[in-house]
Amino acid sequence: MMKSLLRRVLAALGLSALALAGPVAAKAPVPARPALWAVSDADTTIYLFGTIHLLPKDYAWRTAKFDQAVAGSQQLVIETIVDENNPHEMMAALSSLAFSPNLPPITARVPVAKRAALESAIKQSGLPQSAFDRMETWAAAFMLLGNQFKAMGLKNGEGVETVLRNSFTSQGKSVGELESNREQLAFFDALPEQAQRTLLEGSIDEPRNMTQEFDRMLGSWARGDIDQIAKTFNETLAASPELKDALLKRRNENWNRWVQRRMASPGAVMIAVGAGHLAGNDSLVDMLRRGGYSVRRLQ
After folding, report:
1. In Å, how far are 31, 76, 88, 169, 230 from 272, measured between CA atoms?
2. Is the C or the N end of the chain the one with fewer CB within 10 Å?
């Protein structure tokens, strides 16, 4: 349950730290209508768009209504900005958080039955096992998830955020972030060790299992099926209140305050964050509505 939970969280929360990997190649164009909302008053409009980072390039997700919202927005705001051409900030943040002294060997952090698979995954990564021994468990999982992405045929540069960033910058519009690279990674760094170890196990699981779970989440996103996304999170996150609080609720609370501050200034902004942040109880949409804002679903 927890391995499935963590993979779903990574897919649907769309953590940008994992966006160094890109999309899977689709065989034919697939029409999609992902969910889009708007919060507005007399002189301000904030669009809320749910993304999924690992997106097949042939998904036709840009609808006329969505493009109208993009055209009317002066700024794009995403979770965090990862510069794929110069990832120094992300790498510096990762290095500052990822290593600690006196950690147990990496192989001691998984059950005995998983150790051979872990050693094999480490060899595929190209890094020495001694490097993983010095990594905190969540960081080792991040490194090894790269093997899974490669096995799924992932490439760089065509995810939703990348497309949107290119669209805004090509029009001379600014791109901002809700949290820095370090702030985002710090949510993982603060996870309980057991949750980190379960994530590590998930990073060496059979790629076909990850592919099946990702396909289900991708289908919900493409249909704009917020109820299904919320159901998935309600069922799985119930098993880990700590994970829900660290990766979902506290971040949504931060973003809720950001939106409320931004509503005091005129203009239009598009916020694009992982779809899981906009679905169900304690979502950003739910928090804004509870705060008295009218949030209209546009598609």
Report:
1. 19, 7, 23, 15, 18
2. N
Please check whether residue 268 is in contact with residue 46, taking contact to mean a CB–CB distance below 8 angstroms. Answer: yes
Cα 246 to chain centroid distance, Å, stands at 14
> Would you give the distance in Å from CA 69 to the centre of its chain?
22
C-beta atoms surrounding 211 within 10 Å: 15
Q: Look at residue 70 in the predicted model and tell me its pLDDT.
A: 96
With beta carbons less than 8 A apart as the criterion, state whether 23 and 54 touch: yes
**Cα distances (Å, whole numbers) of residue 165 to 51, 55, 58, 162, 181:** 13, 15, 18, 5, 16
pLDDT digits (tens, 9 = 90+) for 202-244: 788 776 666 777 778 888 999 999 999 888 777 766 666 777 7
Are 52 and 293 spatial neighbours (Cβ–Cβ below 8 Å)? no
The three-class DSSP label of residue 75 is strand
